[in-house]
Amino acid sequence: MEPVLSVRHLTKRFAGLTALSDVSFDLGRGEILGLIGPNGAGKTTLVNLISGAFRASEGDLRFEGAPIGALPSHRRAKLGIGRTFQIMRPFPGLSVLDNVAVGALFGTGGGHRQLAIARELAHQKLEFVGLAHRADRPAEALGGPDRKRLELAKALAMNPRLLLLDEVMAGLNLAELEAVFAIVRKVRDEGVSVLVIEHVMKAIRSLSDRLLVLHHGEKIAEGKPQQVLSDPTVIEAYLGRRRAAHEGAGT
Ligand SMILES: Nc1ncnc2c1ncn2[C@@H]1O[C@H](COP(=O)(O)OP(=O)(O)O)[C@@H](O)[C@H]1O
Ligand SMILES: [Mg+2]
Fold first, then answer.
1. Does any ligand 1 atom lie closer than 6 A to the CB of residue 130?
2. Domain 5-80+160-250, second-level architecture
3. pTM: predicted TM-score of the whole model, two decimal places
4. pLDDT (average), residues 97-118
């Protein structure tokens, strides 16, 4: 079966710094791929390249077989690539419902959608993530866990076939995390492919069908969670980091 997303030799250079180096992988239909790696490994950069926030320095990106590397982000969103942002940014002054409605207008088929219909769709998505009871509140009044739900609802309202989740679960406790995971699994069960960045290792390993590990912008491992997390190269990437942080703290 053709992969939903195909990444080949993807490289991103910022003045003097290679944030992502020659990364290749495929993402299948309805697959959850966990993207992990120490801080600064290039995870957000990869998401930015796939969503179109950044243009790659080199390499090839295909979505459902079609090259997308030259398309601006709004065109990629219309094709079915939805994302959340690591830094939450609800539109201030807009209600929770209208924040999500903006997602509906921005995503697949959004251009032809009327506001009333976008709001209806937004309401469905708020129900899906368990936030319908807050629909009329100003978005900036939401607390941490509810903001994550809002981010998720916004991305889902774009009606994506590929969903990019960048640390959408950061700061949640285990129970809240499980609730968001249940939503992500429900999304996947509807045939959506998911690329998810998450720090809590126990959590990401149980959520992901496969893991991909980045370190200094390079792919150092890819495969079943069990196998990847017992890979000495991966362990060293994390331990080396922890050791360095520990030594730094001691001085
Ligand atoms: N817009 C940018 N301009 C310059 N350097 C950047 C930019 N975005 C990311 N970087 C650098 O690229 C590297 C990878 O960053 P990032 O993708 O955010 O890592 P991660 O999400 O894995 O923590 C880091 O060294 C970071 O400082
Ligand atoms: Mg990041």
1. no
2. 3-Layer(aba) Sandwich (3.40)
3. 0.89
4. 80
